[in-house]
């Protein structure tokens, strides 16, 4: 069941596009506004494929970690809930699992209160916060999660909304350094080196809406996993990442994705 009392969200700004709502539109959702739809319609058709591939990777990675016994998840950049949500996937395997969702868009809070409802045995909590305040996120998360045991940190399609001048490497390092051995980092990231023309078009369209992007090469994305042990198949495209059969259908993708464990000696 949800715990705590969420803060009163600020008024939703419907005059500016927001990443969570554009993503909702790309996934075929209804919880977006004309300004978000306008951005989505200007994106290349492959953007919808990328959103679908990204979501499917999250499902596979989350289910696998739950099968491995991980029962605590910190999902930053949650987005507008789209079923099945992360907690539903996890709690099918581990009903008593505890999940903390984090997003900075007030519309996400509104939907979270209604839709991110835990199994009776488990816990879900929603925190309205910005990934650029990792310390604040960790303080809230510790109210729900036990950081003496493994925690899965989920950063799905989030970091490409942090250009280099916002220090995404430092943010990820602070978050990962808080994780005990056996924890995991689940990460997906838009690529700048797989379909450079499309990446440039997407970046330009988001910029027109006042949203800065920082797509990255595979080597640049790999740096987020420094000091961690990548699990097979390593850092691959989103449709290529799977651990159990059936294998996803082979398809082109512009999303780098990977899962890594915090080693027993901690991060370097």
From TrEMBL:
Tell me the segments the record calls region Disordered.
Answer: 247-268
- Do you know which Gene3D superfamilies this protein is assigned to? Vaccinia Virus protein VP39 (3.40.50.150)
Pfam families, per the entry: Methyltransf_19
Under the heading InterPro entries, the entry gives: SAM-dependent_MTases_sf, SAM_dep_MeTrfase_SAV2177_type
Which SUPFAM superfamilies does UniProt cross-reference here? S-adenosyl-L-methionine-dependent methyltransferases (SSF53335)
Residues that span the membrane, as ranges: none
Q: Which domain of life is it from?
A: Bacteria
Name of the protein in its database record? SAM-dependent methyltransferase
Q: Report the source organism.
A: Streptomyces variabilis
């Amino acid at each position: 069941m949800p715990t705590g009392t969420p803060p009163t969200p600020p008024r939703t700004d419907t005059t500016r596009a927001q990443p969570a709502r554009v993503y909702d539109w790309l996934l075929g959702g209804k919880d977006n506004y004309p300004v978000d739809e306008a951005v989505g319609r200007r994106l290349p058709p492959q953007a919808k494929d990328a959103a679908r591939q990204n979501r499917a990777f999250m499902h596979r990675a989350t289910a696998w970690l739950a099968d491995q016994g991980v029962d605590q998840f910190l999902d930053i950049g949650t987005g507008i809930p789209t079923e099945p949500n992360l907690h539903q996937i996890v709690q099918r395997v581990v009903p008593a699992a505890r999940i903390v969702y984090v997003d900075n868009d007030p519309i996400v809070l509104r939907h979270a209160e209604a839709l991110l409802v835990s199994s009776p045995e488990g816990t879900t909590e929603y925190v309205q916060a910005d990934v650029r305040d990792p310390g604040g996120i960790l303080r809230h998360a510790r109210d729900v999660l036990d950081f003496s045991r493994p925690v899965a940190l989920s950063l799905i399609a989030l970091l490409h909304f942090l250009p280099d001048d916002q220090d995404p490497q430092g943010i990820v390092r602070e978050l990962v350094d808080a994780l005990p051995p056996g924890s995991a980092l689940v990460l997906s990231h838009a690529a700048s080196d797989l379909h450079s023309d499309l990446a440039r078009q997407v970046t330009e369209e988001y910029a027109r809406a006042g949203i800065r992007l920082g797509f990255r090469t595979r080597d640049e994305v790999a740096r987020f996993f420094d000091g961690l042990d990548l699990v097979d198949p390593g850092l691959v495209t989103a449709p290529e990442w799977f651990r159990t059969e059936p294998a996803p259908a082979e398809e082109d993708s512009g999303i780098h994705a990977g899962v890594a464990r915090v080693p027993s000696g901690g991060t370097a």
